[in-house]
Design goal:
Order of helices and strands: HHHEEEHHHHHHEHEHEEHEEEEHHHHH
Radius of gyration: 38 Å
Helix content: 25-40%
Strand content: 5-15%
Distance between the termini: 120 Å
Strand order of the largest sheet: 2-1-11-10-9-8
Length: 522
């Protein structure tokens, strides 16, 4: 009887039928049993089994495909996970605009760009913090003596993590460094742009410095540390720096005409990371969506996955809670910007990457949203950055709206997503001031038209009145002209003499005028 009820329920919701009920297997009822163990990534479960709506999640497909058709990116991999399962794991489009291979969330390898900062560098710092080998409020030069001079002596590890160290956003190190050692030297000797803690500057230089701290403290390369302490223990076999050339056909290409002078595929897109040998704290990681979903679940689980603890739960809480402004330690807090959408909870955190990647994790909903694209690869859209920004936000919103068992209730579906409107994607986006000016002109024009429009039933009266006014005006004008003319005739000007005369000459009497002239004089 129970299997029949389950089958009926599955058919009514449109979801696939679970293999068996958790209670029948003696498993905890809090998390449903997987219907299949995915070859890569998290186990897969139907949306309804984890309290989500498949119909609402389907809007994700439309949003991602609109980004592709608009020319924002050739393909994308998406994973939405909840309660320990992948509930919406899909590939869209192709690796590039002409490549025959379709995107697969478990096979296609993407350049993660700045997701390296959180998936790699921040995680390494958390591990060393757990072990007492890195202190958040210790000065950076306690670990890196070369990082010194002026205000730099007071910069702390915490300030590097929150982007308040005063370091600039970046600099063209790749132009002056010829070896990774030279690039490292340039990173550590970069002068500050402002006093520490006095300003917020999102800094690649700061993240690269954190990576060097990890190497200095651990005694091994950042890539080696992460492989040994994070990726291998978690089974993230597709994640790492400098992917092997044998994976080339599975790697989504990035820029076609970079400063290096040749198309990039399997080499880090960021020029400074490339100058550092392809391994840096700010960029360089490659991975698949399925692999990154394991990392996302690790964070939701408080630093543990599949029986393996990587980070303590207290450290995960410390690093992911809002610290200053909209920044946590290494992570960004969801505040409606940065592609986090409108509906993620106040405790949600995440990060984005320049190549078109993003990861948002919502502990309150026990959910994460992951997007990988290569939007820097010959984007055909006029404004590809606007396309990816809207798609990221729509993806986060669609996932949050699909949650049906939230204590706060079910969110209403929007009338349209940003991708449906596609404002500014391939056209010129007017500023709000220009739009207000145009609206004001339109209102004035409308009022003017109404004022000119005659009132129904009184057209002839209006025309008569206008004609009468016109006749009076003409008559008045003619009368005025007549008076002026007659006045000139009646009063001829007398030229004054500039010389004195002995006897004044009496003026002549004017000749008699006709009655019309007399009327004009009077």
């Amino acid at each position: 009887m129970i299997p029949l009820l389950l089958a009926a329920l599955a058919l009514s919701t449109g979801d696939s039928l679970p293999v068996s009920s958790p209670s029948l297997l003696g498993m905890p009822a809090g998390r449903p049993a997987p219907i299949e163990a995915a070859g890569e990534g998290l186990p897969v479960r139907s949306p309804s089994a984890v309290g989500m709506s498949a119909a609402r999640l389907a809007s994700i497909d439309r949003v991602i495909r609109r980004g592709i058709s608009a020319g924002g990116y050739p393909g994308a991999a998406v994973v939405v996970g909840r309660k320990g399962f992948a509930v919406w794991q899909k590939g869209f489009g192709r690796l590039d605009w002409t490549h025959p291979a379709e995107v697969s969330p478990g096979e296609t390898v993407y350049d993660l760009a700045s997701l390296t900062k959180v998936v790699g560098t921040t995680t390494a710092v958390m591990i060393l913090y757990d072990e007492g080998r890195i202190q958040l409020d210790a000065p950076v030069n306690a670990y890196l003596p070369e990082f010194t001079g002026g205000w730099k002596d007071s910069v702390t590890v915490r300030q590097l993590l929150t982007h308040r160290s005063g370091l600039p956003a970046s600099r063209n190190i790749w132009r002056i460094a010829h070896t990774p050692a030279e690039a490292r030297f340039q990173i550590l000797t970069t002068p500050l742009a402002c006093r520490p803690a006095a300003c917020f500057i999102y800094s690649d230089i700061g993240a690269a410095t954190l990576g060097i701290i990890v190497e200095q403290v651990s005694g091994i390369g950042l890539d080696e540390f992460l492989e040994a302490r994070v990726f291998a223990p978690l089974g993230m076999k597709e994640t790492g720096f400098r992917p092997d050339p044998s994976l080339r056909d599975r790697i989504a290409p990035t820029e076609v005409l970079p400063p290096r002078g040749y198309p990039l595929r399997g080499e880090v897109h960021d020029e400074n990371a490339y100058a550092m040998g392809g391994v840096s704290g700010h960029a360089g990681l490659f991975s698949t969506a399925a692999d990154v979903s394991i990392f996302a679940q690790l964070m939701l689980n408080g630093g543990e996955y599949n029986g393996t603890r990587i980070i303590s739960d207290s450290t995960v809480r410390l690093f992911t809670q809002r610290a200053v402004g909209n920044r946590a330690l290494g992570w960004a807090s969801a505040d409606g910007s940065g592609g986090s959408g409108r509906y993620l909870s106040n405790r949600a955190y995440g990060h984005t990457g320049f190549t078109g990647t993003s990861l948002w994790i919502d502990p309150d909903r026990d959910m994460f949203v992951l997007l990988l694209t290569n939007r820097v690869h010959v984007a055909r859209a006029r404004r590809p950055a606007k396309v990816i920004s809207d798609v990221r936000a729509d993806l986060a919103d669609a996932a949050a709206i699909a949650v049906m068992d939230s204590p706060e209730g079910v969110l209403a579906m929007p009338a349209a997503f940003r991708a449906d409107r596609a404002v500014g994607w391939n056209g010129v986006e007017r500023s709000s001031k220009a739009r207000r000016s145009k609206a004001s002109r339109s209102r004035r024009s409308s009022k003017s038209a109404k004022a000119r429009k005659p009132v129904s039933g009184s057209s002839s009266k209006v025309r008569t009145a206008r004609a009468s006014k016109g006749s009076k005006a003409v008559a008045k004008t003619r009368s005025s002209a007549t008076r002026k003319t007659v006045s000139k005739v009646a009063r001829p000007s007398v030229k004054k003499s500039t010389t004195k005369s002995a006897r004044p000459t009496p003026a002549r009497k004017p000749a008699p005028r006709k009655s019309g002239a007399k009327r004009a004089q009077s």
